Amino acid sequence: MPPYVKGARHPLQYAGVNSIGLRRRGYSAEKINQIQDIYRYLYVRGLNVTKAVEVIETDVLVTPERDEILEFIKNSKRGIMKGYFSE
Hints:
CATH class: Mainly Alpha
Oligomer: single chain
Radius of gyration: 12 Å
Shape: globular
CATH topology: Udp N-acetylglucosamine O-acyltransferase, Domain 2
Number of domains: 1
Number of helices: 4
Strand order of the largest sheet: 1-2
Distance between the termini: 19 Å
Largest sheet: 2 strands, antiparallel
Strand content: 5-15%
């Protein structure tokens, strides 16, 4: 399961960013929105994972959270969970 997200359903699928948990840990609304934007590339915009990673690397401001998410994706041996909009 990628960092900062919630999973639901069976089989496990992306169900959004865990914004409540992030707020409890002191993340600002701006930082949470940045994380949500990253996951929109992966789960909402219809890009495959490889293309989404390329776009995130070029278009999204470098932050520790962005780098953590990209590192997770790149090091995943089995891929990342599907989004609930995926077929």
